[in-house]
Design brief:
alpha/beta, single chain, Rossmann fold, about 190 residues, 6 helices, seven-stranded mixed β-sheet
């Protein structure tokens, strides 16, 4: 499995990491670890977990790790925090996720790109599970594409009692990228 190399989406998100990250941070799908390293550089952050389903990505992150605040580990979404006794019960102030958000293309077998049949299934599953791992007042930074169906994702968030705001939007090539700040309704 190849490591997802940072592209426009990663750099767009990276520009907002220090502003919104605080406390204990989870960088879900860490890839090369640039979001985890960026978060660790904030004085408001005490610890960062960088997780990825791709073992090669985690090995890469550990070899290139700059901050001692970061724990890199292999995990399929939140599995690490459900099965590893050291981390069971861990909750996060901030969760960062630049997920695979493209609709499934049978010709491309890359988990770093495949967000599900319509592109939003993985994101919806992640959001559903996130409720169990956010501290009170915890926030999620989520990046996704117009190819993911923004109206479907917005409806999912509303229906599941999430508050959200669009922090930024960027048009590239054939799509728009959106960065949302999401939190549970009080």
């Amino acid at each position: 499995m190849e490591i997802y190399e940072p592209e426009e989406d990663s750099f767009l998100m990276q520009a907002y990491i220090k502003k919104y990250s605080k406390g204990v941070v989870l960088d879900m799908g860490t890839g090369t670890g640039i979001q985890a390293e960026e978060a660790a550089g904030s004085k408001k952050v005490v610890k960062v977990f960088g997780v990825d389903i791709n073992e090669e990505a985690i090995k890469h992150c550990i070899r290139n790790q700059k901050s001692k605040k970061i724990i890199f580990a292999t995990s399929d979404l939140f599995t690490l925090f459900k099965v590893d006794r050291r981390y069971i019960g861990t909750k996060f102030d901030t969760i960062i996720f630049n997920p695979p958000y493209l609709p499934n293309d049978p010709k491309i077998k890359d988990k770093a790109l495949d967000g599900g049949k319509k592109g939003y299934e993985l994101i919806c599953g992640f959001l559903h599970e996130s409720k169990n791992f956010l501290k009170p007042n915890g926030k999620i930074l989520l990046l996704f594409s117009s190819l993911t169906s923004k109206p479907t994702l917005d409806n999912f968030l509303i229906k599941n009692h999430w508050k959200f705001k669009e922090i930024t939007k960027k048009h590239i090539f054939f799509e728009d990228l959106y960065l949302y700040l999401i939190e549970l309704e009080k």
